[in-house]
Amino acid sequence: MIRLKNLLGAIKAEHQITTQSELAALLSQNEILVQQIQTADAQHWVHFAKNTFDGWYCIRTPMLSTFEVYYQERGQNCWGEDVFTEQSEAIAAVIFMSGVWDQVP
Prior knowledge:
105 residues, Cytoplasmic protein
């Protein structure tokens, strides 16, 4: 399984992405890339399915019309709860808010 940091490094280099909005624009046009990010090994820092792990989450709401991005510790939402209507914007937000993007060379 590919690590999220490695995947983001390749995206950063290949597409010269520097901002959250640029990443969101790329993801909005590339469903395969969205799937790769969602299934990459983020080493417990970014999650795309509800769980009890500490870390950042990007979760589709039950009505399937919005996406929530938040930080959780001990099974409880701790920081923020930003809501997005576009999946690409939510994924870009969780990547930047978590700090993972800044850790990519």
